[in-house]
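To illustrate the input format used throughout this study, we show a single complete record. The first block contains the structure-token representation of the backbone; no residue identities are included at this stage. The design step must infer an amino acid for every position from geometry alone.
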């Protein structure tokens, strides 16, 4: 079964529901700011745990498009 048409329709509906004022760049910026805030102010033990989770691939690193965590 080819779902190409249904997927295109679904995506169009999602974009329509977001409305004309939706700004994807601002949304990504806000997401990165929230991520940085979530992992800011860690004590030494929390920072070590965070670093281990990043190294294990559980959490994303601070690469392109990702705000610094500390």
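Output of the design step:
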């Amino acid at each position: 079964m080819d779902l190409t048409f249904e997927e295109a329709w679904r995506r169009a509906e999602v974009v329509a529901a977001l409305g004309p004022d939706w700004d994807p760049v601002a949304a990504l910026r806000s997401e990165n700011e929230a991520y940085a805030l979530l992992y800011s102010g860690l004590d030494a033990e929390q920072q070590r745990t965070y670093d281990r989770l990043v190294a294990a691939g559980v959490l994303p690193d601070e690469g392109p498009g990702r705000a610094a965590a500390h």
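Structural context for interpreting the output: The CA atoms of residues 25 and 68 lie 18 Å apart. The chain has a mean pLDDT of 88.
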